[in-house]
Amino acid sequence: MTAIIGWKEISRVLPRLDLMREIEAGFVAYSRGEAIVPPVGELLFPCGEVHIKYGYIRGDSTFTIKVATGFYDNPAHGLDAPNGLFLLFDSRTGAPVAVLLDEGHLTDIRTAIAGAIAAKYLAPPKIEAIGVIGTGVQAREQVKYLKLVTPCRCVRAFGRSETAVEAFCRVLRDDGYDAASVATPDEVAARANLIVTATPASEPLLMSASVRPGTHITAVGADTPHKNEIDPELFARADIIAADSIAQCMSRGDIHHALARGTTSQDRLVELGAIITGASPGRQNANQITIADLTGVAVQDINIAQAVFWAIRSERDVS
Amino acid sequence: MTAIIGWKEISRVLPRLDLMREIEAGFVAYSRGEAIVPPVGELLFPCGEVHIKYGYIRGDSTFTIKVATGFYDNPAHGLDAPNGLFLLFDSRTGAPVAVLLDEGHLTDIRTAIAGAIAAKYLAPPKIEAIGVIGTGVQAREQVKYLKLVTPCRCVRAFGRSETAVEAFCRVLRDDGYDAASVATPDEVAARANLIVTATPASEPLLMSASVRPGTHITAVGADTPHKNEIDPELFARADIIAADSIAQCMSRGDIHHALARGTTSQDRLVELGAIITGASPGRQNANQITIADLTGVAVQDINIAQAVFWAIRSERDVS
Q1: A60, A302 contact by CB (below 8 A)
Q2: What are residue A270's phi and psi, to 5 degrees?
Q3: Is 90 exceeded by the pLDDT of residue A3?
């Protein structure tokens, strides 16, 4: 019997899971070549997009297919833009084991946790303020999961819509943050030394000239070939350029634009999984500029889905 | 709420549906360029494979993602090799509308119906015998759905395993067929002028020298780049070479091997959708040799899933 699991049941087990450890293990397996992760499937609509990420880690008893949808007109109709589901199949028989109807939340969470992992290894030791460019669900989740790695509760945020950025800051203030909006992305860079960009921009928002030495940037918004948040020139100044997947970042995300402009080269890229194991160094001093480009890799989906599924299954077995 | 629909409920509505019309409409939409069908996603295991076929037809209210698994050791453990499921999503919001837990049966059926469609337009007017190479689920389904287009109830079958081919013929005899096994693929070609190949062979089984003028061949087994059932030389003799998808047959299935060997060329290929609309001619006389290479196109999955889903939904609405 295929287990059908809704978001309510998923959200109940999440607090019990060490998702940071699960996602780190996924990146490590990926960088060690232990993951089978084919290219992302993609389906485009006039006002939406669908990504299919899938694969398995050698030796796992299940493989995972994740469908993440994002339809930009949804908020105008009272719906969240992201949606989707996860499928787990038995690796020995191909039988569907579980459908996780996560409504897109697990994708948001695993992406935010990747941001926290990037900050853990690359952010400067003392974070003055967390800078956020973007005001959507992912911007909010990034700030939330950074709690796992920094005590900083000061946020400076930029968004195109004044209403949206004010609402974003209000939510954070309600959660005890010193959160304020700033007028430009440059001002974010002037105030914050840990910056997260989480927008669907197709033109750079964070310009190289505005970024101070000692800043770490996590770029999560650009996950397709055309999206671009970070000025390609910044890559020429960066001391560490980390990709969740070098292979994927060759054709998607901000690194891909920098490669096209010649402001960095493939041999300068390191993978997050290699930084986690220590095979590549993380931040070495307080003055380095570091960038983590997160385009989203199926190993994150594989490991979060497995962790959620096994937790729920053991719970169901008990009851 | 996402509808979760099991095979039992699916199988109950199937007899009410005109699936041949649905699948024909899918091929026509595809050949007219009205379908968005990205390349097939694929995941390989030591003893199994997973295909992800997905897309939509312009204007449809849903899009479809189909997962078909095939694990070859399953029968040794009392399980069918094929399994899988279909997902329907809302094209305007990305929300999951339905999960069809079809256990792989809808893929078998839509493939068998494509074979019946190929025979409808390409088989000779008088069918002496249906020749079958292969004894698996798909071989059986092909014979079953050929009932839609021919009164012929004579089957000559070849299989590598004597036990399997005898069991295959017994099932058909129980269903009123004159079914008998023959010793070689050559003998299939000597007895039958409508031949279906449905094996996972990676070396040609049906040799050109054995095929008589006036024969139609439907090749359904080869759906990956390495699989190959039909002698590439036969393509040089064929009067009509139909592909379910020319684009897909450039890199998968038997046509792809013939192209590589130079025994046919892209300009000689026609699409099933064009034959259905009359844009390309079907069989013109009793002596032609015709081949239909069916690698499986997502439009078949899209249309069978929609037909099943809407039938079940209207039934659920009534009750």
Answers
A1: yes
A2: -125, 155
A3: yes
Mean pLDDT confidence for A17-40: 97
* C-alpha pair distances (Å), A224 with each of A111, A112, A154, B38, B198: 15, 18, 30, 16, 39
Q: Rounded distance, CA B139 to CA B157, Å?
A: 9
CB pairs under 8 A between A and B: 109
Number of separate helices (H) and strands (E) present in chain A: 11, 15
What is the distance between the alpha carbons of residues A278 and A283, in angstroms, rounded to a whole number? 11
Q: Is the pLDDT of residue B224 over 90?
A: no
Q: Using 50, 70 and 90 to split pLDDT, how confident is the model at A319?
A: low
Residue B2's pLDDT is 97
Among candidate residues A115, A126, A116, A131, the one with its CA nearest the CA of residue A180: A131
Give yes or no for a contact between B162 and B182, defined as CB atoms under 8 angstroms apart.
no
Report ipTM (2 d.p.): 0.90
- State whether A41 and B55 contact (CB < 8 Å): no
pLDDT at A23 over 80: yes
Q: How far apart are CA A254 and CA A51, in angstroms?
A: 18
| Cβ pair A96:B67 closer than 8 A | yes
Is the pLDDT score of A31 beyond 80? yes
A83 contact residues in B (CB cutoff 8 A): 93-96
**A229 with A254: CB under 8 angstroms?**
yes
Of B36, B71, B96, which is closest to A85 when you measure between CB atoms? B96
**Chain A contact for B61, CB < 8 A?**
no
pLDDT confidence of residue B317? 80
- B77/A71 touch (CB, cutoff 8 Å), yes or no: no
Mean pLDDT score across all residues of chain B = 96
Average pLDDT over residues B27-51: 95
Q: Which residues of B touch A91 (CB under 8 A)?
A: 45
Nearest chain A Cα distance for residue B40, angstroms: 8
pLDDT > 70: what percent of chain B?
100
Closest alpha carbon to A46 in B59, B301, B64:
B59
Closest chain A CA to residue B83: A95
Whether A72 and chain B come into contact, CB under 8 Å, resolves to: no
Note whether B279 contacts A: Cβ–Cβ < 8 A.
no
What pLDDT digit, counting tens, does each position of B90-112 carry? 999 999 999 999 999 999 999 99
pLDDT digit string (tens) for B171-192? 999 999 999 999 999 999 999 9
Pick from A65, A84, A94: CB nearest B48: A94
Please indicate if any CB of chain A lies within 8 Å of the CB of B99: yes
Query: Which residues on chain B are in Cβ contact (under 8 Å) with A71?
Result: 92-94
- Identify the CA nearest to A310 among candidates A64, A75, A123, A142: A64
Would you say B308 and B23 are in contact if contact means Cβ atoms under 8 Å apart? Answer: no
**Tokens standing for B153?**
């109830």
Residues pairing with A68 in the sheet? A51, A84
Most B CBs within 10 A among A4, A57, A65, A102, hence the mutation to make, goes to A65
> What is the token pair recorded at A140?
């909010």
Q: How many CA atoms lie within 13 A of A115 on its CB side?
A: 30
CB–CB of B70/B47 below 8 Å?
Answer: no
Residue B226 has pLDDT above 90, yes or no: no
